[in-house]
Amino acid sequence: MTIFWITGIVTCLVLATLLYFVAKRRHSILGDPLPQTTTAASDRLATRAVTGAVIVTILLLFVMLISSFITSRRLGHMHDQDAMTIEVYGHQWWWEIHYPYPKEPYREVITANELHVPVGTLIRIEGTSNDVIHSFWAPNLNGKRDLLPGYTNDLMFLVDKPGIWRGQCAEFCGLQHAHMSFFTIAESKENFNRWMEAQRQSAADPKTEQTRHGQQVFLTHSCVLCHAIGGTTAGSHVGPDLTHLATRSTIAAGTLPNTIGNLAGWILNAQSIKPGCRMPPNQLSGSDLQDLLAYMETLR
């Protein structure tokens, strides 16, 4: 922000000076040019102005240099502190997010395309890729880190106020690179803890005939080959974990809002929405699709 305000003010001053002299000399284009006269006093004034501008420039550059040094040092010290570790895996073209719990692995949380963090807590992102090179970029929080297959890179940041910020893959990774986004959701520690506890729960058992049939549609069609739903026999992690799908704001890595209509179109023919993605078309009858959608609405 220091660099932003310094460069912003300097830019405004330069443009204001330019506009002033353009306005002052505008009549020279239509009439006779102004006489060019110099005196010893004007030379001294010009010399002082140039000298002053050079001195101010040097001082501002030193201010930016010192500010950058202080910021870099603070970021470096983050690695010496305890931090919440979140694992991020890049896929073509979506983000798999793990909240590990080494002491009690069964308490691990797995989600997709939404990074929930508590305000005021130091976060360490440990990222890698499961296919090609991706780049995890949350521009409002910190710089980007390339995610390389077979390697793990880390990124540290701390969010100081609640909010939602969009992130993006910043390394070209194929046809749908532009549609590989995620959202960082910062909330109070109390709300974050409630979210974590809810995410640790298995999916609720279907309570109506329609949702029970919808669950069977899910478990007997190709959905079960790629997705997991906690509390059911679906345990594949080729695609996003769907245990709490209905709580997410978007589908297809930020491509569409998470609505019933969009979800129906995505299930039937994802290729028409995101060509080249790994989601195959699904041939379902109208009644099977409606029951499946009703079941997926319960995944909260």
From TrEMBL:
It is found in: Membrane. The chain crosses the membrane at residues 6-23, 49-70. Residues 209-300 form the Cytochrome c domain. One of its GO terms (molecular function) is oxidoreductase activity. Its main location: membrane. The keyword DNA-binding does not apply. CDD domains: CuRO_CcO_Caa3_II. It is a multi-pass membrane protein. The keyword Isomerase does not apply. One of its GO terms (cellular component) is membrane. Residues 81-198 form the Cytochrome oxidase subunit II copper A binding domain. InterPro entries: CcO_II, CcO_II-like_C, Copper_CuA, Cupredoxin, CuRO_CcO_Caa3_II, Cyt_c-like_dom, Cyt_c-like_dom_sf, Cyt_c_oxidase_su2. GO terms for biological process: ATP synthesis coupled electron transport. Keywords: Copper, Electron transport, Heme, Iron, Membrane, Metal-binding, Respiratory chain, Transmembrane, Transmembrane helix, Transport. Signal peptide: none annotated. Subunits I and II form the functional core of the enzyme complex. Electrons originating in cytochrome c are transferred via heme a and Cu(A) to the binuclear center formed by heme a3 and Cu(B). This is Cytochrome aa3 subunit 2.
